[in-house]
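Q: what sequence does this backbone want?
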């Protein structure tokens, strides 16, 4: 990624974050939720949030009857039809979308 300036706020740096093909999603376990061995994944921007839910359930080897709650920035649970790109543009931190997960309702 080109930074375009000494402080990283050049046009090239901003443009590369506005509409990337994939974004980095960082998962953080909360409460008694199992911890992933790898917590950062690249996700296609056009994917819906429900794709993240299905992916995480698969990674954790959860059965359909096990509860799983996901939150962006430990604050709210997005709608399943929200796009990853929209969430990233609005709520990214350090060029990553932070998603916390737990087995019982915690935030929001």
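A:
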């Amino acid at each position: 990624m080109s930074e375009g300036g000494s402080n990283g706020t050049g046009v090239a740096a901003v443009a590369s974050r506005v509409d990337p093909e994939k974004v980095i999603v960082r998962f953080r376990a909360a409460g008694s939720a199992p911890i992933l061995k790898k917590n950062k994944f690249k996700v296609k921007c056009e994917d819906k949030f429900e794709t993240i839910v299905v992916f995480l359930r698969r990674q954790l080897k959860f059965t359909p009857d096990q509860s799983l709650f996901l939150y962006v920035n430990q604050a709210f649970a997005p709608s399943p039809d929200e796009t990853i790109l929209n969430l990233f543009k609005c709520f990214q931190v350090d060029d990553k979308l932070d998603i916390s997960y737990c087995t019982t309702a915690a935030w929001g």
